[in-house]
Design brief:
Helix content: 40-55%
CATH architecture of the largest domain: Alpha-Beta Barrel
CATH superfamily of the largest domain: Phosphoenolpyruvate-binding domains
Distance between the termini: 24 Å
CATH topology of the largest domain: TIM Barrel
Oligomer: single chain
CATH class of the largest domain: Alpha Beta
Number of domains: 3
Strand content: 5-15%
Structural class: alpha/beta
């Protein structure tokens, strides 16, 4: 996080997790607004009573969560429901309960102390996990612990609002249960110390279309309730106590964003066809089934990437074939979608099923993960393959294998898929007669072998997040190196063009499902390469469609040719930015406007 200060105005840079601009008063939210007391139990006879007090707090916590869940069901917000289910599972977790009671019994301490020790234990375990998504899940356990502690204290926290204006909730993090208890009709934005694009705050904020910025490090120590805040969820900025001129400019930006957003949605379902009649099919990336309705509303024609590892990570036990099948059916049976691309799980390295003990790896992102893990854990892999094949009989389904680095991997994956198909047919179960097979191109070696890989599959899907990271030797989770993470780097453009050209030479389609696909600044560069499909976060779809519909393939090819004539990434970026601002002034407002 970078901080710039002028007088009493602070500009904080974080991660934009839900787009839009909001101006309002801060409400500093403390989910654990109680004083905890830690003490020893003087009499051994008090231990059974203390254990029972702990168990009573667990029951009361579960009752509260079920009540919150019931209230959420009455609203149009579905996303928190599954997370509250996870919190209830944590409350019922045998290890969580048994170890906490052991602390009470063996150490002779009160329940609050024991719960806090368990929380510290989990924090230490999760701190050793390098993957940002997995390490971020400690927040689930923390939210549950806070609720139990609150019930142990016997105090009920009321959310108090000292004003009736728009409220921007400022917190370390916000759980779905906390969100459900807030007076959401008054909440206009979120700003949190921790979290990222996959955090619960992000999921809820995007589903409610509330601007939000996360990863601000210590905004809770910089803001007081009733401070004036600007949250720019598009740029990832939070401005504390803006000076008058800045406030005026952001009021104008807010008005423009609201007007353009309304206009975007009015055209969202129109096809992405250029002025010279070249069509790009636009899809949505999802992690949860609940995201499908919003993806369709924002113009997704299909699901270009369904990340399935969350089925494992959020499950107490390994999911069965039926668990997989039921989940996939909800996706592929959606009539408004042309097809759904299911990516086989990207587990391994530092993303493992919840009941599996990962082996420590020096560099997990380049370790035993994705297709490598699948080909090692064949039983797990075939369980998923069977479910995907069965779902293919319900609706049009494509399968996508991640992190393919060579011919051997794709052939072995296809062999296992064929074995699973033969087994299902022998068992009398229905499968689609044909299902398109895709390789995810996200490793440089796959780019080098793209012409040969293209003969093995029906389509490519470029995963730019990892491809850029590996090609430029940049850890994209390292905030100190983010300035080097450049999608418009000349080397990246050459890699992408090689993939597209190899695919088209082999007469197969090529898609992109990485973050670059939804970046308006990169839109015409990708159009110039003649990608067939772009799949992205649903909020990015209307704007991308609008730019494509106002462009021609001919002009995009000229832009691409000129951009690729530069040797320096900053020169490419400057040239493309200048072009886009000149040709689409309404889409790319200058920051100083």
């Amino acid at each position: 996080m970078s901080v710039y200060q002028e007088k009493k105005t602070l500009v904080l840079k974080g991660i934009g997790i839900s787009p839009g601009i909001v101006i309002g008063k801060a409400y500093l939210f403390d989910p654990l607004d109680i004083q905890l007391s830690f003490y020893k139990l003087d009499d051994v006879a008090l231990i059974p009573k203390e254990i029972q007090r702990f168990k009573n707090a667990l029951k009361e916590s579960e009752r509260q969560l079920l009540e919150i869940q019931e209230n959420v069901r009455k609203t149009k917000i579905d996303e928190p429901l599954y997370v509250i289910d996870v919190h209830i599972l944590i409350l019922k977790d045998k290890k969580f309960i048994s170890r906490t009671t052991k602390y009470i019994r063996r150490l002779g301490i009160n329940a609050e102390w024991a719960v806090r020790m368990m929380l510290d234990r989990y924090k230490k375990i999760f701190a050793d996990v390098e993957d940002t998504y997995i390490s971020g899940r400690i927040s689930d356990i923390q939210h549950v612990a806070e609720r139990v502690l609150r019930n142990l204290s016997g105090k009920k926290r009321e959310t108090v609002w000292g004003f009736d204006d728009n409220v921007i909730v400022v917190a370390q993090d916000i759980s779905p249960a906390d969100t459900a208890q807030l007076k959401m009709e008054k909440v206009r934005g979120f700003a949190t110390d921790i979290g990222g694009r996959t955090s619960h705050t992000a999921i809820v904020a995007r589903s409610m279309e509330i601007p939000a910025v996360a990863g601000l490090d210590n905004i809770t120590s910089m803001v007081q309730t009733a401070d004036i805040l600007i949250v720019d969820g598009t740029a990832g900025l939070v401005i504390v106590n803006p000076y008058p001129d800045m406030l005026t400019r952001y009021e104008e930006k807010k008005t423009h964003y609201a007007a353009s957003k309304k206009e975007y949605l009015s055209h969202a379902k129109l096809p992405a066809v250029t002025l010279d009649n070249y069509r790009v099919q636009i899809g949505g990336n999802i992690e949860f089934v609940e995201e499908i309705p919003m993806a369709i509303t924002h113009g997704a024609e299909y699901i270009g990437l369904y990340r399935t590892e969350f089925i494992y990570i959020n499950s107490e036990d390994l999911p069965t074939e039926e668990d997989h099948f039921n989940n996939y059916c909800q996706v592929v049976k959606t009539k408004e979608l042309l097809w759904s691309t299911i990516r086989t799980f990207d587990l391994g390295g530092d993303k493992f099923p919840s009941n599996s003990k990962p082996a420590k790896e020096l560099n997990p992102q380049m370790g035993l993960r994705a297709i490598r893990f699948c080909l090692k854990e064949v039983d797990l892999f075939k369980t998923q393959l069977r479910a995907i094949l069965r779902a293919s009989a319900i609706g049009k389904t494509k399968i996508l294998f991640p992190m393919i680095s060579g011919i051997e991997e794709i052939r072995e994956a296809k062999k296992l898929l064929q074995e699973a198909r033969a087994e299902l047919i022998a068992e009398g179960l229905k499968v689609a007669p044909d299902m398109e097979i895709g390789a995810m191109i996200e490793v440089p070696s796959a780019v080098v072998l793209a012409d040969k890989l293209a003969r093995e599959v029906d389509f490519f899907s470029i995963g730019t997040n990892d491809l850029i990271q590996y090609a430029l030797a940049i850890d994209r989770a390292n905030e100190h190196l983010m300035y080097l993470y450049e999608p418009l780097h000349p080397a990246v453009l050459l890699l992408l063009k090689r993939v597209v050209d190899s695919a088209h030479k082999a007469k197969i389609r090529v898609a992109m499902c990485g973050e670059m696909a939804g970046d308006p600044m990169c839109c015409l560069i990708l159009l110039g390469m003649e990608l067939d499909e772009l799949s992205m976060n649903h909020l990015a779809i209307p704007r991308i469609k609008r730019i494509i519909r106002a462009s021609s393939l001919k002009d995009a090819k000229v832009l691409l040719k000129n951009a690729m004539s530069f040797s320096v990434a900053s020169e490419v970026r400057a040239y493309v930015q200048d072009y886009m601002k000149q040709h689409f002034p309404k889409e790319f407002q200058k920051e100083e406007d």
